[in-house]
Every structure is written in structure tokens, then in C-alpha cells.
Give the backbone structure.
Amino acid sequence: MTRNEFVKMCSLLGLSLPYQSILASCTSDNTVSSTDFQGTVLIIGAGAAGMTAGYLLNQQGVDFQILEASTVLGGRMKTTTDFVDFPIPMGAEWLHVKRGVFDEIVNDSNISVQTQTTPYDPNTDTALYKGQEVSMQDLGFDIDQKFIGASWLDFFEQYVVPSIQNNISYNQVVTAIDYSGEKIRVNTSNSEFIADKVIVTVPVKLLQNSSISFTPQLPKKKLDALSKVTVWDGFKAFIEFSQKFYPTAIGFDITPESAGQKLYYDAAYGQNSTRPVLGLFTVGTGTLPYRQLSDNALIEYMLEELDTLFEGQASANYVKHISQNWNEEPFAQGAYVYDQENWRRVRTLGESVNDKLFFAGTAYTDGEDWSSVHTAARSAIQAVNELAR
């Protein structure tokens, strides 16, 4: 079963295609178990999965350290606040499941999550798809919500980071993991770390490109899954205009469906702002030609594309733009595992090795869902539970 087949199974509960989310009821229980584990844990990566794992281990009183290759935390939740007067998510953007996932991550009934989100209005929000006006539900936005005055990164910085920030070491590019002995040795470009358990959360593209060597080699089953899994290219852009002339979203038909996705959307939707911003989200072949163009050629191409749809209004109202090519990020090298991947292959990616190496992140799940922040967080919950049994 591919992720799309799983999505279609969930559609019996009321979802539609092509931009479809997974219902929370289609996932397993995500509670955190208590533990008597007394060892030390190294977490590779300070993205959604790595931060969630560290946060939960901290709650359990487990000694842990997070090794982050870059100079900042967040991974593919990258957000900028200096483009307009509300946060612009250069990576992960929507909440694709019910808000209860915030409580799963925080794991503390005494904390009330105040992060604001808003769903799309089925009565008033419209989209364009193949030149026709359709509802946002027709594009699959049944449960998806936009963050208001915040982003996924803001949520983590407010509720997760304060309790783990002293345990994060930056500029630690992991090059080798030796789990052949009783203790695990992790080498970076400038240090060596020793631990009892390791949680690997790096994007799967880095493992495909052998950025980290393992001693002994990872099991053949996992290596086979790594060699066969498809990671989509990823690109995002945002354009500010002097006035709004577009609907809530503009969907595009990319064929075959497994090739990619492309969507323009109202990035300012629900924000306390009067500044019109249109976002572009593309993965797979949808990223072409955007990620291959120079900055000047990029905006010319986008404005011409929008002018064709909206009778020259894009060029007439253009103010400025920004873009993000995820293929060029050294510690991402792409977007995420594509939607049509075989779920068994994804499950194999998420399996632990020798009760020493554990995997968490958008690509390392139980195979029921993948490639979203909530799946990364839930995979971290599962890894912590397995590690600490």
C-alpha cells in the first residue's frame, strides 16, 4: 500500500483528492510511557523529531544531548520574520491533523497550548483548479489549518526549546556512527561523543548520499529501503503584492500524480495583516523550472505565469519576493519522501537497529503516514518509547 492508497482508504471518512491530509483517527496511539532507563542518549538533528525526542527524554529525566549540524535549530521548519509583518514558513507550513497533536508533543496536561490556527471556511473560500472555481475541500483541505501570527517553528520555540536549549550542540556535522561495541561512538567533523543509545533524525537524503558512515553497516533490509525510497525535490516562494487579486488557492494538475505537486496559495490567509502575500509550494517535477532559475528569471517566470491567469494583475501589483530551494540546503538536500512511496518501505526506514540505533523524522515512521511535522513528532514519541522500555 502506498501513502496515497492509505489516504484513499481514509477518504471513506470524508477526505478528497488531490491535496489530501490524513485524519488523526487514522494514526496510532501517541502517548509517552514512563521509564527507568538510566543510560545516555545522543540525538542527531535538532529538527521537529530531534527536538521532540529531547523534550520527552528531558521529561523522563534521561541524560541526552542533541547534535545539530547547522548553526540554528528547526531543520525544515525554517521561518522568516523579516519579509512582511507575519511569519513566513519557508518550509513546513500547515497543521495537517487536529490540534490535539500539540498536546501530544507537550505531554503535560498543565500546559495549555495557545498557538493559534485557523481552518479554511468551506462556505466562502474558493480555489482555481484546471481553470474552474472549486472549493478548498475539492483541493483536499478538509482538516488542514493555517498558523496565525506563528508557525510550526514558533510552536517549538515556545513550548519545547526552553527545556532543551542547553542540551543542543551546534556545528556538529556527524560523519560516523560506530555501534559495534557496548557503547556507541559518534564522530563529528571536530569531536567524538559516546552514548548508550542514538536517535537518528537526519533527512533521509543524507543517508542515501552516505553522509554518515555506520559501523557495522546498517542491515541489508534498511539499506535496500534507503536505496529505493524516493525523495521529492522541494521549492517554495512568496510574493508580496500591493493588492489581492487571487483566490485562496490555485491548484495545478501534475501528471502522473507520483511526479509531484504544485500549489499557489494565499499565504496571508487568517493573518492579522493587510499585506497580500501569495505563496508557491512545489515538490517533485513541480519544482521545475523554478529551482533552476536565477532570482531575476524566477520572478519574471512567476509573474508571467500569474499574469496569464489574472489578466496582468501580478506584474501590475508586484512588490517583492523571496524563495527557498530545499535541494540546495546542505543538511536537507530535498523536500520529503514522496506521497506514493510504499508504506512498508517507509516502515523499514523507521525500524530500530540492535536496540542501539533508533530513527525518527518525517521519513522514519510506522508507515501509516509520513512527510509532515506531526508525523516527525509522533515518530519521535515512538522512538523514545521503544528506546526507554
Summary: The chain has one domain: 3-231+332-387. The chain is about 25% helix and 25% strand. The longest helix spans residues 295-310.
